[in-house]
């Protein structure tokens, strides 16, 4: 009896182990990585600077070259071109569309349509663009959920949302260099509150 119990327990353990160790498919892994880069806390709130337009966000880049590198980073897609193009993610994870900007300082607008999430657009802009006459989308005045992110001092890429925080003097900046430009120059960047939520 004892022997049979040991064997039965072994089979049960093996079955559980097999279930737990099933590896993610490339498409599942990609979706997990994209969600962690593009959204806050696995929610439907994109991890970029908000505007009054519910589906329009922006982020800063010092140059067009860095804008391309940021797009490649946020979309997990190498080989982005500087022309109008649509790219498909693995499996049925969705797509993103890159559109060159038509104003000085607006490098690209990227429509993100990721599986299970509401589509939204991110403008990749020069830091001064949001304060000039070409900026036509108002920023929210704040008051809700303003928070900080770590921003690379060289290329202005925002660290992954996991490094978001509410206190102005955090103790732990990212412990690795920027994945876009390889600099190790992290600075706090305030993301304004969004009264829409």
Question: What is this entry, summarized?
Answer:
The chain is of the alpha+beta class. It has one domain.
Overview of this protein structure:
The relative contact order is 0.16. The chain has helices at residues 2-20, 26-38, 64-75; strands at 49-50, 56-60, 85-88, 94-100, 106-114, 120-125, 147-152, 186-191. Helices cover 22% and strands 23% of the residues. With 197 residues, the protein is an alpha+beta fold. It is globular and about 50 Å long. It has one domain (27-191).
* Count of helix runs: 3
Strand arrangement, largest sheet?
1-2-6-5-4-3
Radius of gyration: 21 Å
Query: What summary fits the major beta sheet?
Result: 6 strands, mixed
- The total beta strand count reads 8
Query: How many structural domains can be distinguished in the coordinates?
Result: 1
Q: Roughly how many Å apart are the termini?
A: 62 Å
User: What fraction strand?
Assistant: 15-25%
Model regions low in confidence, pLDDT < 50 over at least 5 residues: 4-9
Q: What is the string of SSEs from the N terminus onward?
A: HHEEHEEEEEE
User: Pairing-aware structural class of the strands and helices?
Assistant: alpha+beta
